[in-house]
Every structure is written in structure tokens, then in C-alpha cells.
Design brief:
mainly alpha, ABC_transp_permease, LivM-like, cell membrane, transmembrane, transmembrane helix
């Protein structure tokens, strides 16, 4: 326990890799035995939580760690979902699915039936789009940055609706191979957490935090703030693309209506609730947000009753919103603030 309670920067390389190995082994064991313990419904919810963990920690990298108020996740998730779907669908299936018009030749012939490779390509495409977008986006800061990135999400959705030869328009894509098993999603989430965590606590991560705390001071100290912000943006887009690919496979069908601003808003709630800049907070808040929504689902059923209270459609959102409101009133910097779980454990141990 003493190793777990220390800050990561105080660990020796041997202790660090030992800790990573222990956590990895425990989580893999949990993934292996989960199907023997939980129902299919619970496994589906857990798989959805793992996907949102990937999206939350990647969004937290640009918004919380680097301090850039970006509202773009739905755009990159959509890119990842569509790239994965196009790569995993065979040319024969595409001929049947594209009803509005024939797909473009390179879209029809693009076929890579290797899930891991398709996910990597989805992430790379997202990163390349982020690199292109970084040049105009990071010419502004603050609220203007939020407006520009918000517009990007709308542009992607409109593009998907109005280019049926690429995306099949508003009809979307279905019959997507369901390669995203519960175990695979969990493994990808674990890899994503380890990679993002190592980035946050590297010298690049420290540079990202310096940009967040005072960009002008970081620039004066010789830090290439544009390069750091672009790297954070591209890294975030990569994992959002991978998460979008997993989401497309787990659902089996996608359409532009699934990638509205509501998806970005949900991720924003998660990282703010957990604490901006805290990876532990993002992970915990994802379990709280997605899991809480499922636990409260019976409230929408008219047959549910607790004393004089009857379930009605929409009651779940009202109750969940009140819970979130109370949490934010008593934890205004988020549940974890800008700290990680071992920092909190150490603080409480020292205070005790």
C-alpha cells in the first residue's frame, strides 16, 4: 500500500513498472472473470463505461491538463466511428448499404478486416485532422477557442449528412462487424489510460500544465506553446478516434444524429465532475455518470413505485441532474480537484 500511496514522480523505475504490472494483472483478471460473474446487461454497461473512459481521459488531456477550452470531441469521435465502419465493411456490403448513391471508389474498396489496425487508422486520421485544424484554432484563446471547436463538430456532422457517397448521408451505416468485445474494449481502455498517464507525467505533460497555468509565462520561458497545444490536441483526437471506432463496433450501426453536441456535453460534465486535470477524477466520474444513469433507469418506467412516488418518463434525468447539482455545489473544483487518487490518500494519511 505504501507504494500505491506515493506520488508517481517519487517512484523508482523498478517500483513504477511493478505497480503498472500489478494494476494491469488485476484489471485483466477482472476482465476475464467478469463474464462469469455479471449478466450480459451489466457487461454491456461496463463496456460502455470503458469506451467513455477512453473519451474522457483524452478530452481531459486537452481541456483539463492543457487548459484549452475545446468543444470538439463529438467531431473526432464521429471521424473515428465512420473510418472504422468504412474499413471494416466489405465492398459487397457497402454496395448494399449505400442506397442514396454509389460510394466513392476509394471508399468502396477500402477494406481492412483487422480490428486493431482499423482502430489505429481511425485514431491516425483523427490526429491528422486535428493537426490541420490546429493552425487556425490555436490562433485564438478562451471562449473564442470554444466557439471555433464547437463549429468544427457541427461541420463534421453536416459533412456526414450531405456527402452520401462517403457516409451514406443521414441513413448512416449499419451491419458494422461487432469485433468490440467486452474484453477488447477493456484492454484498449487500459492501454489508453497507461499511455495518457505517461504523457501527463512526462516533460511534455509538465509543459502542457505550464500552458494551462500561464501561457504567456510558459512562452517567456522558451516553451513552444503552439507545439505543445498541437501535440495535446492531436493526442486527444487520436484516442477519441479510437473510442469512436469501438463505439461504432459495439453499437453495430451509426448515423450523424449520434454525434451531436450532446456527446461533447456529456464528456464535459464527466471531466468537470471528476476534476479538470485529474485522470483519476475522469475515470471515477465516468463510472458515476454512466453507471448512475443506468441505476436510475427504472425511474422512467411507469410501473416503478416507491411509496407515493411513481415512475414517469424523464424523471431519471431530473433526479440525476439534482444529484449532479448537489455534487458540484459541495465540490466546486470537482470530486478530485486537480489531484490524483494517491495524492488524496497521502494528504488524508498525513492529516490523520
Amino acid at each position: 500500500m505504501n507504494v500505491i500511496k506515493q506520488k508517481i514522480k517519487t517512484l523508482t523505475p523498478k517500483e513504477y513498472f511493478s505497480l503498472i504490472a500489478i494494476v494491469t494483472a488485476l484489471f485483466l483478471a477482472f476482465l476475464y472473470f467478469s463474464p462469469k460473474i455479471f449478466s450480459d446487461y451489466t457487461l454491456t454497461v461496463l463496456g460502455n463505461i470503458y469506451i467513455f473512459i477512453i473519451l474522457a481521459i483524452s478530452y481531459n488531456l486537452i481541456n483539463g491538463v492543457t487548459g484549452q477550452f475545446s468543444l470538439e470531441p463529438n467531431g473526432f469521435v464521429a471521424i473515428g466511428a465512420y473510418v472504422t465502419a468504412i474499413l471494416m465493411l466489405s465492398p459487397e456490403l457497402k454496395s448494399e448499404i449505400y442506397m442514396l448513391t454509389n460510394p466513392l471508389p476509394f471508399i468502396k474498396e477500402a477494406y481492412i478486416p483487422i480490428p486493431f489496425l482499423a482502430l489505429i487508422i481511425s485514431g491516425v486520421v483523427g490526429s491528422l485532422v486535428a493537426l490541420t485544424l490546429a493552425f487556425p484554432v490555436f490562433r485564438v484563446r478562451g471562449d473564442y477557442l470554444a466557439i471555433v471547436t464547437l463549429g468544427f463538430g457541427f461541420i463534421i456532422r453536416i459533412f456526414l449528412i450531405n456527402t452520401p457517397s462517403v457516409s451514406n448521408g443521414s441513413m448512416g451505416l449499419d451491419s458494422i462487424p461487432g469485433f468490440a468485445s467486452y474484453f477488447l474494449i477493456g484492454v484498449v481502455a487500459l492501454i489508453s489510460i497507461i499511455l495518457v498517464y505517461n504523457i501527463v507525467y512526462s516533460r511534455y505533460g509538465r509543459a502542457m500544465k505550464s500552458v494551462r497555468d500561464d501561457e504567456d509565462a510558459a512562452l517567456a520561458m522558451g516553451i513552444n506553446t503552439f507545439k505543445i497545444k498541437t501535440m495535446a490536441f492531436m493526442t486527444s483526437a487520436f484516442f477519441e478516434g479510437v473510442g469512436g471506432g469501438l463505439l461504432a463496433s459495439s453499437i453495430g450501426s451509426i448515423s450523424p444524429d449520434q454525434f451531436t453536441f450532446m456527446l461533447t456535453f456529456q464528456l464535459l460534465i464527466i471531466i468537470v465532475l471528476g476534476g479538470l486535470g485529474s485522470m483519476s477524477g475522469a475515470i471515477f466520474a465516468t463510472f458515476l455518470f454512466i453507471g448512475g444513469m443506468e441505476i436510475l433507469r427504472p425511474l422512467d418506467d411507469a410501473s416503478w413505485q416507491l411509496g407515493p412516488i411513481h415512475g414517469i418518463p424523464g424523471l431519471r434525468m431530473v433526479v440525476f441532474s439534482l444529484i449532479l447539482l448537489l455534487l458540484m455545489l459541495f465540490a466546486r473544483r470537482g470530486i478530485f480537484g486537480d489531484k490524483e487518487i494517491w495524492d488524496i490518500i497521502k494528504i488524508r494519511r498525513n492529516n490523520g
